[in-house]
Amino acid sequence: MLQWLLHIIIDAGVLLLAAKYMSKVELKGFKSALIVALIIGVFSFLLSWLLTSLLNIATLGIFYFLGLGFVTRVIAYAIIIELADKVSKDFKTIGFSTSIILAVILALAGALVDAILF
Prior knowledge:
By secondary structure, the protein is mainly alpha-helical. Helices cover 80% and strands 5% of the residues.
């Protein structure tokens, strides 16, 4: 539980930084960033396994068998970011490529935190 809360807070910080430095990401403050990070966390918990499975089936498992399963996970995470964009009025990403870049940044930040703390 503590690890999940820490990830939500760190994801909120990453979202704020992304909104500051990426012109195609809009976010209206830290409270909104926490809410969006929570939405992304919940959607990721509920939907990422389904989206990843569907993408693996759609690609006939090519990325999975080539050891590039992270590609389907990043695309699934980008779809979740797009869903969070639709749910929250205070968060906006312009274009799917922006969501992919944001997904990669969030994944790298999460992996870094896990490597350092857990």
